[in-house]
Write a structure and sequence with these properties.
32% of the residues lie in helices and 17% in strands. It is α+β, with helices and mostly antiparallel strands.
Length: 75
């Protein structure tokens, strides 16, 4: 998913930041087997935009919503 997300994020000036969910056992209940996933915002409260495979259209829609700015990160 990382490779598929990179060009979408680059078009909008967003960063892709990987988070090792295994390092955060408290998130296991929330995300379980739904990884990889794309969150807009900080885990565990970020908005889930894709699970298991990239939904580029959903990411593009989220990035197009105002006031989405250049300093937003995906985790």
């Amino acid at each position: 998913m990382r490779e598929a997300l990179a060009p979408v994020a680059a078009r909008h000036g967003a960063r892709v930041v990987e988070v090792d969910l295994d390092a955060h056992p408290e998130w296991e209940e929330r995300y379980g087997e739904r990884v990889p996933l794309v969150l807009a915002g900080m885990p565990p409260d970020g908005e889930v935009l894709a699970e298991l495979r990239l939904d580029a259209a959903a990411v593009e829609r989220w990035l197009a919503r105002p006031p989405v700015a250049r300093d937003r990160d995906f985790r």
